[in-house]
Design brief:
Elements (H helix, E strand, L loop, with lengths): L1 H7 L4 E2 L1 H11 L1 H22 L4 E12 L21 E16 L3 H68 L4 H36 L8 E2 L14 H11 L1 H21 L5 E14 L2 E13 L7 H67 L5 H36 L3
Parallel strand pairs: 1-4
Antiparallel strand pairs: 2-3, 3-5, 5-6
Helix pairs in contact: 2-4, 3-4, 4-5, 4-7, 4-9, 6-8, 7-8, 8-9
């Protein structure tokens, strides 16, 4: 894993597509989901095995005494009439075969239920993949925003340093009071603190991104510029988006398969009220020497019927029916959650688009204000307070623009997740 990440970050630039692909290849949550799907499919195979012919073979060797044992109601077996510890060889082997013929659907429905559970787990694996995609995208855009805020903080520091140098010249020339120089030094120191804080937040966000990508490795790489393009249909009606989400969300398929499995389990248990019929075939041989063994063969039908088990079957049916009702309720709750997810993401995208436009306009105006304030300060008309306010306004507007881009990108990622799209 370390070697794979070293290759991923070899260029010291990690793109969004690379981050998502890394998560799909290495995220432990996905590996766990794949293993769970394989286990569920194996359980379906286990359930199907009982529908196939069963063949068993046993062989035994005993060194046994041959004393006669008399028991009322049982025929006596020829042997030594008195107790003796003399022993004899006893060889035996048995081959038996059986085939379930009919059990009112108990075992077939048990197999169908296991197969439905395997389908449910496969859908759950797809849901995990969508969640992993969203988590890595969200972590990526957090890191991207923090990287952009580092650049904002660095530009602010550079601007404060230029202003400090200008103020030093003005103070030396006697055109500005010394208090302006103290204020400029304070603003520069604060700008350095903001840059350190931003750089630390960027490094911390890359640790979160590493975890989302499923890798263990350093954070000595950078985030590439990336934006999620408009989601197809993001401006469609809520009803159209809900219809797509209910069709595509794998969580819905998971619970629908779970309901089907629970219903088949009910039918399987109810079938146990009736008997089961099997065909049996057997061959047995035995004797005191391998070359002198007698044998018998048998074939027939076996009927098994559990007539009374203290109400066990009835209780199992009640439990299975309650499981059906619980899963149906869970499915209804999921549909409500899907409505909330889709509508919330759709509104967030709409707000993000509007916020992005507004913050860009605010940043443009703040930069123009700073330009005018610098000109006024240089000619001695403007004050240090006016210039400082303009610098703060630019920094805040730039940070808001970054956050607006981040929120829009994350809103579109959330909409993709809500619609069940990879």
């Amino acid at each position: 894993m370390l070697a794979a990440f070293a290759l991923l970050a070899a260029a010291r630039i990690v793109t969004l597509d690379e981050a998502v692909q890394s998560a799909r290849d290495r995220q432990p949550q996905l590996r766990q989901a794949r293993a769970a799907t394989a286990a569920a499919q194996a359980r379906a195979g286990e359930a199907f095995a009982s529908l196939l012919p069963q063949l068993n073979a046993t062989a035994s060797y005993l060194r046994t005494t041959a004393n006669e044992i008399q028991q009322p109601g049982s025929p006596s077996v020829g042997g030594r009439s008195s107790g003796s510890f003399q022993t004899y060889n006893s060889f035996s082997d048995t081959v038996s075969a059986s085939q379930l013929l009919f059990d009112f659907g108990a075992q077939p429905n048990r197999w169908r239920a296991a197969r439905a559970l395997a389908d449910a787990q496969a859908a759950n694996e797809r849901a995990t993949a969508l969640a992993v995609d969203f988590n890595v995208r969200s972590a990526y855009f957090d890191a991207w925003a923090n990287r952009a805020l580092v650049q904002v903080a660095r530009e602010n520091l550079d601007n404060q340093i230029r202003h400090l140098q200008q103020t030093e010249g003005f103070v030396q020339a006697g055109t500005r009071a010394e208090i302006d120089l103290v204020q400029a030094r304070t603003d520069t120191a604060n700008a350095r603190v903001q840059l350190i804080t931003a750089e630390n937040a960027y490094q911390a966000s890359k640790l979160t991104l590493n975890a989302a990508m499923g890798v263990l490795g350093p954070t000595d790489y950078d985030i590439a510029d990336a934006k999620i393009p408009p989601v197809l249909g993001e401006d469609a009606s809520l009803q159209a988006l809900l219809e797509e989400a209910n069709r595509a969300r794998p969580e819905v398929a998971t619970l629908e398969d779970q309901v089907r499995a629970d219903q088949l389990t009910v039918r399987s248990i109810e079938a146990q009220y009736g008997p089961s019929l099997s065909a049996v075939l057997g061959f047995r041989q035995g004797g005191t020497a391998i070359d002198r063994m007698g044998w018998n063969a048998s074939a027939g039908l076996s009927l098994t019927w559990n007539l009374f088990q203290g109400g066990l079957t009835r209780a199992q049916v009640n439990e299975a029916q309650a499981n059906v009702m619980a899963t149906v309720a869970q499915l209804d709750l999921l549909r409500q959650q899907i409505w909330s997810d889709v509508d919330g993401a759709r509104l967030a995208v709409r707000a993000g688009i509007e916020s992005q436009s507004a913050t860009r306009e605010a940043l443009l105006n703040a930069r123009e204000r700073l330009r005018l304030a610098e000109e006024r300060y240089q000619v001695g008309v403007g004050s240090a307070i006016e210039l400082g306010d303009a610098q703060v306004a630019v920094t805040q507007a730039a940070a808001q623009a970054v956050q607006a881009d981040q929120q829009l990108a994350k809103a579109r990622a959330q909409l993709l997740r809500a619609l069940g799209r990879p």
